[in-house]
Amino acid sequence: MANVLFVCLQNAGRSQMSEALFTRAAAGRGHTARSAGTTPAAQVHPEVVVVMRELGIDLADRIPHRLSDDDARWADVVVTMGCGDACPYIPGRRYLDWQLSDPHGQELDAVRAIRDEIGARVKALLGELS
C-alpha cells in the first residue's frame, strides 16, 4: 500500500482536487493521500469548490496545508504540480511531475477540464500502484 503526497503552490486547487479524487478512487485499496502547498492560500479556490461539488466532493471546509519535510518523509510517491525547486527532495521516494494549469481565476469549463485531467492521472497512478 502506498502513501501519496500531492503538492502544488497554494494547496488550494490542483493538489486538493488530486487528494480528494485519489482518496475516493482508492477507497478499499489501502492507499492513502495527503496534499500540501509550498505557499498555502487561506482557503481552497472557490471555482475548485464548485467543480468538485459537481462530483459530490465538498472541499469548502478544507484548509490549505503548508508542505513540511514530515509530509515528504511520510510519502512513498510525491506528485508535484508547479512547485518547482520549492518541493523538498527525499531520497528513495518516487517523484512525478504533473504539468497542469493552475485553476485559480479560470472559467469553470477550464477548471472542469483540469479536474478531469487530474481524475484520469489519478486512475492511471492507482493502476500502477495496485
UniProtKB/TrEMBL annotation:
InterPro entries (UniProt xref): Ptyr_pPase, Ptyr_pPase_sf
Xref: Pfam families: LMWPc
Protein name (record): Arsenate reductase ArsC
Top EC class of this enzyme: oxidoreductase
Top-level taxon of origin: Bacteria
Residue ranges of domain Phosphotyrosine protein phosphatase I in the record: 2-128
EC number: 1.20.4.4
Keywords linked to the UniProt accession: Arsenical resistance, Oxidoreductase
Keyword Ribonucleoprotein: no
Claim: Oxidoreductase is one of the keywords in the record: yes
A GO molecular-function annotation: arsenate reductase (thioredoxin) activity
